[in-house]
Amino acid sequence: MQTTPDTTLSPTLARFRDAIAQAVDSRTPLTLRGGGTKDFYGRAPAPNGTVLDTREWSGIVDYDCAELVITARSGTPLADIEAALAEHRQMLAFEPPHFAVDGRQATVGGAFAAGLSGPRRQSVGALRDFVLGAVVMDSRGDMLNFGGQVMKNVAGYDVSRLMAGALGTLGLVVQVSMKVLPMPFCDATLRFAMPQAEAIDTLNRWGGQPLPIAASAWIDGALWVRLCGADAAVRAAISKLGGERADEAQAATFWRDLREQSHAFFARAVQGSLPLWRIALPPATPPLAFGQASADEQLVEWGGGQRWWIDTANTPASVIRDAAAKAGGHATLFRNGDRTSDVFTPVAAPLMAVHKRLKDSFDPHGIFNPGRLYADF
Asked: How confident is the model over 283-309, as a mean pLDDT?
């Protein structure tokens, strides 16, 4: 970790530091926010919090397409980063969702803080796996530089990845460096009519074979499988697996709607303000029914490792979490529902003690997004 002296701060970062100092002096919570497209995620923000908008701190700092690394300021629109990468046929392979009507609302800082990944996470890994480094401002106003811009970085603890998904509770993310990947040469989507149990078994059987499966999803009695890679490998997989090939426009719409949760399945939860649960399970887990709902009322992703469920019966969270825990997984209230209670699975006391020590190290005054992860964090 390196600390950058205050004298190097730009006028924008100096304003951020002044806002942090004022919040510390007045003991007023700071709500760190980019475009606000993921405000629904996590516990409700502090009602008396002052919003610190990061969008004025925007721009791509460095992009080395040969080294597959991009560095950007936290307020940079994801759309700008994706456009710059597309010019060189590269991409953010973990497919961060925007969750925005306006494609320029979502920021890279917000994506980093939320730590969410799209359908390709099944094959390439999560956002956290692509983080190389981050610059963070703590509640003392110090600039902390973690990691770097190369894959092999062993200088101390990997704090930059620790902050991915922390929902801004540890500090103000100023800049982030991420690994990018080339776009695949060939992309095809197959569709198979089958029940959920058969789909899970099939995906786990295919998972042990050398197939270029980039993403999968089961919904409404149909299994969708996305194949990406070299042209020869994709053609061979199509020949081996069979199924019905979706046309390019249909496939692109399906995977985009899945990533952005604009698919009809998710729209039902969003429009009806119904609790949407994300259940993380071992991929081979047979279909599970939560509460009074049928297992067929779910959407299955990531080779069976992620199950989405809309709770229409106001099922107690303990019932859902107990069912997930018995299967070796955990459950998160992703949207709607009671956000004043536990949204994420409660952690054991020893682990919470570690969390609190980390929080105290970076935010001893407790001003950054208090309560977004846990009630007292």
From this structure: 86
pTM of the model: 0.91
- Cβ-based neighbours of 4, under 8 Å, separated by 6 or more: 135, 142, 143, 144, 145
Q: What is the pLDDT of residues 217-233, one digit of tens each?
A: 999 999 999 999 999 99
Q: Residue 10 has what pLDDT?
A: 92
- Cα–Cα distances (Å) from 23 to 30, 49, 135, 300, in that order, read 7, 9, 20, 43
Residue 347 φ/ψ, nearest 5 degrees = -100, 160
- Which pLDDT band holds residue 122 (cuts at 50, 70, 90)? very high
Residue-averaged pLDDT of the chain: 91
Eight-state DSSP code of residue 205? H
Of 243, 234, 218, give the one whose Cα is nearest residue 184.
234
Query: Which residues have a Cβ under 8 Å from the Cβ of 371 and sit 6 or more positions away?
Result: 43, 44, 45, 46, 377
The C-alpha atoms of residue 275 and residue 341 are separated, in whole angstroms, by: 13
Residue 313 · residue 293 · CB < 8 Å: yes
Work out the number of other CB atoms within 10 angstroms of the CB of residue 228: 22
What whole-number distance in Å separates Cα of residue 228 and Cα of residue 376?
43
Among left, alpha and beta (phi > 0; psi -120 to 50; other), residue 206 is alpha
DSSP for 79-128, written as a single string: HHHHHHHHTTTEE-TT------SSTTS-BHHHHHHHT---TTHHHH--HH
